[in-house]
Amino acid sequence: MNKILMAEVNISEGTNLELIEKVKKSFIDEKNIEIVDIDSNVDHNRTVFTYKGEPSAVLNATKKLAKCAVDLIDMRNHKGSHPRMGAVDVVPFIPVKNITTEEAVEIAKEFGKYLGEQGVPVYFYEDAQEKEYRKTLPSIRKGQYEALEEKMKDPKWAPDEGPKEFNPKSGGTVTGARFPLVAFNINLDTYNLEIGKKIVKAVRSATGGYSCIRAIALELEEKKQIQVSMNMINYEKTPIHRVFETIKSEANRYNVNIVDTELVGPVPIYALRDVLDFYLRIADSFSLDQIYF
To answer: Name one GO biological process term (predicted).
Structure first.
């Protein structure tokens, strides 16, 4: 049986197209991988490379990509609306087919060791992390790049791999294995960040919302809009349509409307099945086998 692993590599560059193309070329020729999506966002100043394939090929491609990005990106010059703490910010490995979470964790740890040897402080998260207080991405990335130097001085926040001293050029990297999340953004027809923050509070786990939602409000300067940017860490427990309807209702309180939405990177078909069920009232007889490409 063929094993399929997916990687979603987030780098802190979304505006320099020449640099992004160099990063792409660094790993694109790796055999036995398939590019799923490449998404660059100017306001976030961030690019997400998503690809899948045979586990060892995915690991090799990720090493090449990360090495190139670390060489080219200088975090001392980085500005963007999305939280970040490193040139290669976060690298999750996601089991797709015939591969266990434990195997994905081993891949993540091998990648972390490699990147640490390149001089980058590396933190493991989610299923690759044993310490409960540093399992989630928000807890590790709290304070972002600007706070990382001071944070690393605390023994509780020593990196799992790589140097124990702050690397100002690369910043730090978070890697691990996790359940497939849905990166879902909702754009609002307001440029009032305070309204965005109030709406976020209604859905975000940390402020009493849905337990599987991590969310922040961001300013989209070019569009003069506010974005509710979310990571839905378990679409089975908290489906897309439920979050959409909650945000729509909360926005109405402030006479704000939803302009459009974004799904960043790949989306599990089962997550979209829930959307079909809710909005189209599809009968139980409908099967995902009816969908074709």
So the answer is: L-histidine catabolic process to glutamate and formamide
Q: Are residues 9 and 109 in the same domain?
A: yes
Six-digit token pair at 292? 């074709």
- Residue 203's Cβ-count burial label (10 Å; 0-12, 13-18, 19+) is buried
- Residue 61's H or E segment, with its range, is helix 55-72
Question: What residues does 263 pair with on adjacent strands?
Answer: 184
What would the pLDDT profile of 43-91 be if each residue is shown by its tens digit?
899 999 999 999 999 999 999 999 999 999 999 999 998 999 999 999 9
Total residues belonging to the chain: 293
Query: Of the ranges 131-145, 187-201, 269-283, which one carries the lowest mean pLDDT score?
Result: 269-283
For residue 151, is it within any domain? yes
CATH number for the domain spanning 218: value is 3.30.70.670
Question: Is 149:166 a contact under the CB 8 Å cutoff?
Answer: yes
Instruction: Provide CB contacts within 8 A for 195, sequence distance 6+.
Output: 188, 226, 254, 256
Tens digits of residue pLDDT in 81-105:
899 999 999 999 999 889 999 999 9
Instruction: Please list the active-site residues.
Output: 82
What single DSSP character describes residue 50?
E
Domain extent at residue 282: 180-288
> Quick one: 119 and 264 in the same domain?
no
What is the average per-residue pLDDT within 158-184? 95
Of 152, 144, 59, 153, nearest to 110 by C-alpha is 59
Predicted TM-score of the model (pTM): 0.77
Same domain, 135 and 186: no
Of all helices (H) and strands (E), which one includes residue 19?
helix 17-27
CA 171, 35, 127 angle in degrees (round to 5)? 50
Q: Are residues 146 and 268 in the same domain?
A: no
Residue of 136, 87, 130, 88 whose CA lies nearest to 105:
130
